[in-house]
Amino acid sequence: MSARFLLWFGLLLTAATGASAQDDATVMRSIDSIHKMPADTNRVRALISHGREWSAYFEHKKTDNSFWQEAISLSQQLRYYRGLADVYNELGTSKRNRSQYILAADYHEKAAKYAEETRDDHLLAQSLNNAGVDYRRLDNLEKAFDYHFRALQLAEKINDLRNICVATNSIGNIELTDGKNEDAIAQFNRSLRLEEAAHNPLGIAINLGNLGYAYQALHKTDLAIDYFKRSLAANEEMKNNTGIVICYNALGAAYQDKKDYTTAMEYLQKALAVNDQVDDKIHVAESYLSIGKLLAKQGKHEEALANMQQSVNISRQWGFKSMLVDAYQALADEYKATRDFERSLEAMNHSLTYKDSLIDDKSATALAQMHTIYAVDQKDNQIKSLEHDNQVSELKRKRNVIVVFSLVIFTIALIVGGFFYIRHRNLKVNRRTLQLELRSLRAQMNPHFIFNSLSSIHRYIWSNNQEEASDYLTKFSRLMRMILDNTQHTFIPLNKELESLQLYLDLESLRCSHAFEYHINVADDINGEEVLIPPMIIQPYVENAIWHGLVHRPEKGRLDIAIKVEGRLMTCTVTDNGIGRKLAMDIKEKKGKAHNSMGMKVTMGRIELIRKMNNSKETNVKINDLEDAQGNAAGTEVVVVLPVEFIF
Predict the structure, then answer these.
(1) Cβ–Cβ contacts within 10 Å for residue 442, how many?
(2) What is the predicted pLDDT for the residue at 492?
């Protein structure tokens, strides 16, 4: 059966017991409204909230709260552990309010189990405290202490003041019941300080009263009276009639211990007066019984018997069996004191009868609650079994889907992997080929440059004196040594490349009789020792600028070399104010034979290979013809963009 059918069926049973049609209709509208929601965690929370709202409705009809039952079923389907913890806490508290402590403890233990799954320490502390209260009501003090102590540890870890107060107060009550009065006082004092810090008047009143009971047990009656009076003041400020009655009764008992019967009677009479404003009539029966016992101690037997009989009448009317046991016992003692043995025996028999009835009731109640727990667990197991079957079917379906997808993905991965393996192998072969070509071109640069330099020296010797020729040769030998060292490497530091370039420019300047001046400008943010570039990559463009642009100028020429680095790219700009490329070509043609620049041809090949090896589209050489304001040739600009490496 679906959860919706079960919910409606439960409500129909409730209606059959005589619930008002108006309430039935309202509850059913609530169900319809909730069932319009998606079956998710929001629906669970709505079910719990409506279940709390209609809790009295279901309790009055003595049926299960259908909202909460569906919340459990849906939470189990969703594996929503917080929802399960919340609804079991609500169920447990509801059962405890109806004195079904065994059921309450079972529900609150379930709540604690699911709260652990949520890893919510606040929720777990709350659930543990609830279970502790249940076991305290069952007089299982050891188990109650264990639950409250665990709750206290968790609450202290997360500074949850509410649960710290509950756990501390409960531990104090356990120790008070167990006769450990000093330990109980320490716990009540701690709880009192926390309640005062939280400005919780009810908590303050309860702890003050508990301290009074603890000091009374230690026979410190005056101190106990002081705490009872402080508790009474707090209850009066809140207008809490139940608390006021409890304090009046406690003060009556305390003054009775002091044998101050007049004051004791005043407080007990006050309790009796306020009892009319308290819904729980057990306090009225208790007040009459306390007054009767007090009068008996004073020897006022007729009045004592009258008050005790009044307690019996109220207790019989409301079915307070435990109070009847005490009241009939008090009557038996009083009749015995007045030597009315027949009535004393009759009263004692009534007391024993109700005592046996209480024992039978407790046994029957415990048995009924155990049957309920068994039925609930059996129902939960059935739900879990159905869920397990559904999960197994779902897992099988998912497994088949996963197997198919895995085969498809494996096949695709095999194809893609094979493609990339072949591509990688080809790239590796191509890279090795490019490296060999680059090494070959670099090797060609050396004899080309040496040939040009020796020609220059030859011309210089013939046109200059021996001292200057010697100076020239010295610089040339240094330059050759640097070139031989640099060209052994694919990349060299920028400062070494610039040092060799400067030597070359000095030689060419001497050779051309200082027909030009040069300037090398390196950006401030460049560390020449860390930036690595291919060797002899700038020199051919400088050579071209000198021999095809600057040497043909009638005036002194100028050569500018600017270098900057952005990211992993270096931009080198070589600018001359020579005659320009067009006029340089005309001069070549007049000589009758065009000169093919081996250096430029080799350098262009090197740059093309560098572009391929680094897969760098930005690597290029751009040549710009410069013009003056009148449109005449004003030189040439060469912009070389190369990839660079860094030492670090």
Answers:
(1) 21
(2) 87
